[in-house]
Design goal:
The protein has 110 residues and is α+β, with helices and mostly antiparallel strands. The chain has three helices and two strands.
């Protein structure tokens, strides 16, 4: 609450319902990964879908929803953080590999 300048839980709950990335996500051009837990009780899964739908200018976008069967379904995947962390690390590795220049071009001036 203090980050947003609130000291009353009730007014913060009302305020937090209005917090979103509308108007921001559309400006992202870099690769963009959204992970979300299907059972997240703090941020609705619809928010993850909305951000994905808005990320139209990203060169690569992906939405990954973790469900109860595999774990990672709660907020920030705390019920099985290793599965979400491994997915994120693999996605980053794959994405960076896609972005690398071919070996014949590395180290050459442009």
């Amino acid at each position: 609450m203090w980050v947003w300048g609130h000291d009353d839980p009730d007014t913060f709950v009302d305020f937090s319902a209005q917090v979103n990335l509308d108007g921001i996500v559309e400006t992202i051009t870099a690769p963009f990964l959204i992970t979300h837990g299907a059972n997240d009780r703090q941020i609705p899964v619809s928010s993850a879908h909305r951000s994905y739908d808005q990320a139209v200018n990203s060169v690569k976008r992906e939405l990954r929803i973790f469900d109860a069967d595999e774990g990672g379904a709660e907020h920030i995947s705390l019920d099985n953080l290793p599965v979400a962390s491994a997915f994120i690390a693999d996605w980053i590795d794959e994405t960076f590999a896609e972005q690398r220049l071919p070996a014949t071009h590395q180290g050459q001036s442009r």
